[in-house]
């Protein structure tokens, strides 16, 4: 008897394995009638902590949907935020694998073409600061680099610090970048490098956190640290001025500091009432406060 | 009898399912990498030292990454092998039963530590040490990767060698004790020569393991697509894929090139696994 049972269980397992691929279609149909209590966010690793923070506060305050709005059923609020890069966020919307995409760069026109009924919500702005270790003697000599100097440092034309400004030590410049194909690097490439390439000796870090850590630990390092991270690590890394303009909130809002990128949440098609509710929350004063608290410049 | 038949059928089905899945994975990776090979040709993939998948004129050559993968793995095996074999000799021939019972699981446990932990330790300890004590501008280097990887593959070498050595020790202990041969003489002239093949198998197994390691290596080698030098930065194939996959738009040449890199890594590891299999067939394991 036991053996027969084990046989049945085994064959069920195989069957379930074989059928998992088929489940996607029916689930989509069901979502129209049934209340959708889960909302998925995917994309930019810069934006993910912000959305995650707003979502956590929202869930803690309400727990179930009917407490937010009496018309909604009593279902627990499940908001899932996963980071995987801006391009992954756009891809998730094109493929329909996520409800919202998080993107920390402008969405390209050819990407918008692939998304039916494209919608975007701007949460805020981030800039890439050209940051160095606070112990770097360049801070005593010059606090300002021109775009051309930044380009020469990153492309390897300036190899040692004393080439940037006389009086600096003859130490090799340690250039730290994000992965060359990623969203942050594309912004930097467009706004600073132009057609020049970043030198092959540059250290490619897998995340903005790792990039900032490298600058904090190596006094010869220079890299494009996100504004939010600079604010979270005041005193441990120091941003330089670019073309005489410091990355301050005023300069970022006015657009004077040019190495900036938007923080956008994108969506394809009409929003469900509960989705609209959460988007409104993100764009509300409270949501903007969270954006600011995480170190970015809020959109409003 | 009937249930035996059914059981056999189910086992066969399981095997078929897993073999099919594996086949599909390889097929998928192969199919996805075709556009990249079509762009630069199979030879072009190893033609020069430049990897530049985006931009107007993409150059796809993963020669630096292939060499770096081999370089870092061999470096790791070179560092780990003497330590590993020494540990195995100690465990099987010198340590008492109680010491062995404590140490063996401890070493096996090392194999189970998440690789990001090794990477983190490597970043703080090894890379930090290089920066403070050598006049290196940045501590990220092939050597740092080799050291971190050596610690990670140590359990594989120890396990393979220890099993064989303990077996040899067991079968010859009484005879050599009765002949009055010293323990060290026995290790030198009996245990080590007899375990030669499994030492080799352990080393190659560790090499295969090392080639695929992603996270820990990626954190300490700097990920610069350069030809590997001992104290220079480099980038292994797994690091390349992990780093760039998130940013490569689906269907782009960059995306296909990363799949091609994955295919090359699979072929490299397959070659190493074949070597393990050949060696093991010769050894009595």
Record keyword descriptors for this entry.
heterodimer; A: 300 residues; D-Maltodextrin-Binding Protein, domain 2; 2 domains; ten-stranded mixed sheet; 43% helix; B: 285 residues; MetI-like fold; two-stranded antiparallel sheet; 10 helices; 2 strands
CATH topology of the domain at 75-250 and 269-282 in chain B: MetI-like fold
Order of helices and strands of chain A: HHEHEHEHEHEHHEHEHEHEEHEHHE
CATH architectural grouping of the largest domain in chain A: 3-Layer(aba) Sandwich
Strand coverage percent of chain A:
15-25%
Instruction: Give the CATH H-level superfamily of the domain at 75-250 and 269-282 in chain B.
Output: MetI-like
Instruction: Just give the CATH class of the domain at 75-250 and 269-282 in chain B.
Output: Mainly Alpha
CATH architecture of the domain at 75-250 and 269-282 in chain B: Orthogonal Bundle
Describe this structure in words.
- The complex is a heterodimer of chains A (300) and B (285).
- Chain A is an alpha/beta fold and 300 residues long.
- Chain A has two domains: 38-125 and 262-298, Periplasmic binding protein-like II (D-Maltodextrin-Binding Protein, domain 2), CATH 3.40.190; 127-260, Periplasmic binding protein-like II (D-Maltodextrin-Binding Protein, domain 2, 3-Layer(aba) Sandwich), CATH 3.40.190.
- Chain A has helices spanning 2-19, 24-33, 48-62, 86-95, 109-114, 138-141, 147-155, 161-164, 183-193, 208-217, 227-232, 249-254, 273-283, 285-293; strands at residues 38-43, 78-83, 100-103, 118-132, 144-145, 174-178, 203-205, 221-226, 238-239, 241-242, 260-268, 297-298.
- Chain B has 285 residues and is mainly alpha-helical.
- Chains A and B meet through helix 1, helix 4, strand 7 and helix 10 of A and helix 1 and helix 9 of B.
